[in-house]
Amino acid sequence: MKISSTGLKDGYFLDIFGGNSPSVEQGDMPTYSIPFKIEDAPEDTVSFAAILYDVDAFAVTNGFPWIHWTIANLTKKEVKENESIDAVDFVQGVNSWHSQFIGGKEKKLTSMYGGMTPPDQDHVYTLTVFALDALLDIENGFMLNEWHHKIKEHILASATLEGKYRKLD
Predict the structure, then answer these.
(1) Which of 10, 68, 87, 118 could form a disulfide with 123 if both were Cys (CB 3.0 to 4.6 A apart)?
(2) Domains of the chain, residue spans
(3) Structure pTM?
């Protein structure tokens, strides 16, 4: 299985997908989500789950990765640019913008893509997609631990894509 994204150019995600987008006010959560395409999934795949995270965020999160996006029950092989904002054919979990240590945005407002905003240096972002043999009993607003426990017995294959995002201007 493999994944690709037209949102990457020369190893970097385009500005529109994070805090360097001209449409994002400083300190606001970017919501214009990255596109990605899945190829060569196992034939018996029923759904996909995905996670986009930043392990370089440890310097600004007291040692933890930043979760930008979690998806479950995706039944198609392509997610379009900015699809997170009004997704109706997959469910999304809470991202790290919900975290209380940064002021804690409402759960409803953080159950979607929360874009890239590296404050200290260029960060590497990892998108991992899992092919699953089932649809999950999970609803919008799920937490990462719930997602993790639900997918672990259903994984058929996985693929990872990495790209950088440049430090905030």
Answers:
(1) 118
(2) 2-165
(3) 0.93
Domain topology for 2-165: Phosphatidylethanolamine-binding Protein (3.90.280)
Show Cβ contacts of residue 132 under 8 Å, excluding neighbours closer than 6 positions.
45, 46, 47, 48, 49, 151, 154, 155, 156
> pLDDT by residue for the chain (169 residues), tens digit each?
999 999 999 999 999 999 999 888 767 889 999 999 999 999 999 999 999 999 998 777 777 899 999 999 999 999 999 999 999 999 999 998 876 545 555 667 789 999 999 989 999 999 999 999 999 999 999 999 999 999 999 999 999 999 999 998 8
CB 13 within 8 A of CB 164: yes
